[in-house]
Amino acid sequence: MELLNQQVMKAKNMKAVFSLIWDEAGISRAEIAKRLSLSKTTISSLVEELIQRSFIVDTGKQATTSVGRRPSSLFVRQGSHFVPVITWTRNTIDFQVLDLNGETVFTQIEQISDKDQFVSVTSRNLKAICARNAFKDKILVCCLVLPGMIDSFHDVLYSTTLGMYDHDAKAMYESVHKVCKQYPFAVLQDTACYAYAEKIYTTIKVQEFAFINFNIGIGATLFVQGNMLGKANGAFTQFGHYSMDSQGIECACGNRGCLENEIGESNLSTRFKEFSGETDVVIPEYLTYEDLGVAVKEGNETAKRVVISLASDFAQALRNVVCLVNPRLIVLGGKCQYLGELFLTQVQTLLHAQGFSQMSDFTLIRYTNLDSNAYLKGAMRYFFDTYYDFSDVTGNSLFIG
Ligand SMILES: [Zn+2]
After folding, report:
1. I want to staple 260 with a disulfide (CB 3.0 to 4.6 A). Which of 171, 240, 271, 401 is the partner?
2. Nearest-CA neighbor of 195 among 333, 373, 338?
3. Could you tell me if 277 and 345 lie in one domain?
């Protein structure tokens, strides 16, 4: 029992040491000992093991100067451990392999014409990736990132984006995991991974914040007291299906007037037609946020009115989020950034003009500082922080959310 406790403690400390080196590249052994309130001897032995296991390198050790040895300078080792992240979107399967520094070292994109192909194409390509010499035996986890609701309690994957309502979801994940059985396998939601990246890779100081992702759907992940509300499964919050109008268009989810059907990209063309009235201008069947943003920049008055109306509806939904969880910060990610300053300023103004001022007056809104691929690093880091264990007790399990 005593031995077991020691092993658990050692793995926990090793994870803390590695996380510090990850976040503060170049940190020294002495500084780590100070931060973690552990002895220098303990830190030295943990660092040695991390070096031996190829997780980190000590660049200070390799060089001496005229005044003696340089202090230790610890960095995550490049190209020694890998994380394949597979993303299902409406028409594609994206295969990316990251190293622990978050660099993409392999990319492959497959077009999908039928949703029945998702499992077979994923399995075939993932198997080939795991067999590559560069990655073989160097994979920490394989991650599958999905848009939608990964409801492990009811064993359902519900995704309007993918057109999937699978009632035997675990069996589907297991059939993919079969091809990489020697590694752990994590099934995570896209917005949660994007939000987690925002938390880790930008300097968010507040404990309460909301991350809203505009993609084909609209998703949100909430952080309360510094922690993600629920797991990375999208089963706790489905902000895109927040009802704006009880008499509105019926959504595939069963609700009416869902936010993502009102202000989502699929409704932009309809909304533009409503605002343009009698005009000869040809409006494309599918108008994107990017098209709309370009039209605003070109001074198109109808486009401006459409953006202001989107901001008005979005602010209404946000005012309710503020009343539920009182976030100090709301970060907007994904395609809404194409709508630029006009959208952001309008949302800020309208959020504060109405709403419960004691709460909303203290809520800041900004666009994300990360690029749209940041969710890949978010997925890797979420798995590591939430599940990875240096004593290998995580084994090769399936992790959902
Ligand atoms: Zn809905």
Report:
1. 240
2. 333
3. yes
